[in-house]
Amino acid sequence: xxxxxxxxxxxxxxxxxxxxxxxxxxxxxxxxxxxxxxxxxxxxxxxxxxxxxxxxxxxxxxxxxxxxxxxxxxxxxxxxxxxxxxxxxxxxxxxxxxxxxxxxxxxxxxxxxxxxxxxxxxxxxxxxxxxxxxxxxxxxxxxxxxxxxxxxxxxxxxxxxxxxxxxxxxxxxxxxxxxxxxxxxxxxxxxxxxxxxxxxxxxxxxxxxxxxxxxxxxxxxxxxxxxxxxxxxxxxxxxxxxxxxxxxxxxxxxxxxxxxxxxxxxxxxxxxxxxxxxxxxxxxxxxxxxxxxxxxxxxxxxxxxxxxxxxxxxxxxxxxxxxxxxxxxxxxxxxxxxxxxxxxxxxxxxxxx
Length: 353
What we know:
The protein has about 350 residues and is an alpha+beta fold. It has one domain: B-lactam Antibiotic, Isopenicillin N Synthase, Chain (Jelly Rolls). It is built from 8 helices and 18 strands. The chain has helices spanning about 15, 20-35, 50-65, 65-70, 100-105, 140-165, 250-255, 340-350, and strands spanning about 10, 40-45, 85, 115-120, 180-190, 190, 200-205, 210-215, 220-225, 235, 240-245, 265, 275-280, 285-290, 300, 305-310, 315-320, 335-340. It has an 8-stranded mixed sheet. Strands 7-12-9-10 form a 4-stranded antiparallel sheet, with no helix packed on it. Strands 6-15 form a two-stranded antiparallel sheet. A hairpin with a 5-residue loop joins strand 13 (about 275-280) and strand 14. Helix 2 (about 20-35) packs across helix 6 and helix 3 (about 50-65) crosses helix 6 (about 140-165). The longest helix is centred in the middle third of the chain and has 26 residues, at about 140-165. Belongs to the iron/ascorbate-dependent oxidoreductase family. GO terms for molecular function: dioxygenase activity; metal ion binding. Pfam families: 2OG-FeII_Oxy, DIOX_N. It comes from Clohesyomyces aquaticus.
């Protein structure tokens, strides 16, 4: 496996503060990334570093709670109301598997992770499910403010995508006007490496919304399928002060596959580099060789990540955008579908079976 990822880094700050030419340049760079890889790292994205760090701190506090406390905010059965806490073993990610028997077989070895989902505080269709305030004071208030920051970034990215696809004003942002997005905090508990020979932290899959923001910790383990070598996965190494953005299935359909909804998974973190012998002078001035040892070789450490999933308003019809087909050589590849109908189909496979 290659040590580096082909995912490009784009300075989104130039889009947020630049003029027309700079916005168009950034839009082209993002377009190239989504056409070639389906992923892009954005720096200068506008979500304050301190806020991201605090979100990871809150995530660790939440998942450190006793199970009986976390289950005071339980995810309802099934996938139609995607809010609250899911314990390890509840969810099994699958890739376009909808047959009940096949889903049941996949669920025999569930993903090794736990999660907590929240969304727009004003979403009456899927109200949030929070812990009692005294169970984790301040958690709800912070998560609601973090949701707002990520939601703002999503709408800025949609503006850039509108430029890339030549969508007339007002662009794609109004199709997401209700911000029916999902903020997920994820914890992958420490596990022996040998255990991951027969199970995954999260199985290979594509996201099913329009786009996803991902803030990940320094542990690593996210892998993205190489578009030029199907079945080969390469690390999406955490890069400080960036957010990783990827296209989901709905946006791939909307763009008539101009953009890739690339399969990705979470497995073993990249191996630590072998540390060379370090030759130093000791207190008596004599040279001594000190071998720096690696530790934890048999245990994969805890990993935390914070994905933020965007999806269009429920009634939005996802049909190939005019600039992505011409009716002659390039035709529509997919039948129209409502955003809500498609997401619910995918959610049913995720939680039911």
